[in-house]
User: Which sequence fits this backbone?
């Protein structure tokens, strides 16, 4: 078994995620999409109040941290995002915000993909230098 350094990025993220889940008394922070026994996609969130970025925050607002797909042909992103949107109101959230790109899939998908699914474009955002992508903040009322 390989031992990882205590301060590895993955270990730090795992600790941060557990702290958020416990602090906000949440049963989970996302939905995974499986095909057989293989994880092929998913949608993860945190309460916006826990987000270190300068985004709108509120106790009823969730922030999509990751909407990932793992296949260039099949859409493994829509189902977990839709399921997450259905579950968030039961967890106390009425809005979901996300950072998306105009033309590339990083960080969560393209602006058009989110607009086609009922999200509203709140405008361009700048969190850190991203020469490869113009990013926007999007929001959906749940």
Assistant:
């Amino acid at each position: 078994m390989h031992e990882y350094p205590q301060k590895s990025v993955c270990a730090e993220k795992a600790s941060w995620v557990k702290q958020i889940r416990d602090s906000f008394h949440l049963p989970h922070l996302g939905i995974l999409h499986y095909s057989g026994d293989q994880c092929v996609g998913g949608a993860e969130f945190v309460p916006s109040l826990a987000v270190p970025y300068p985004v709108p925050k509120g106790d009823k607002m969730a922030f999509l941290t990751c909407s990932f797909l793992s296949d260039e042909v099949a859409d493994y992103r829509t189902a977990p995002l839709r399921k997450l949107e259905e579950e968030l109101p039961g967890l106390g959230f009425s809005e979901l915000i996300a950072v998306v790109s105009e033309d590339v899939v990083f960080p969560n998908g393209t602006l058009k993909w989110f607009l086609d699914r009922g999200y509203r474009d709140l405008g361009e955002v700048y969190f850190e230098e991203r020469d490869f992508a113009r990013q926007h903040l999007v929001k959906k009322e749940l």
Summary: Residues 53 and 127 are 7 Å apart (CA to CA). The two ends are 43 Å apart (CA to CA). Helices lie at 9-23, 78-87, 111-115. The beta strands are 30-35, 38-47, 61-69, 95-101, 120-125, 135-141.
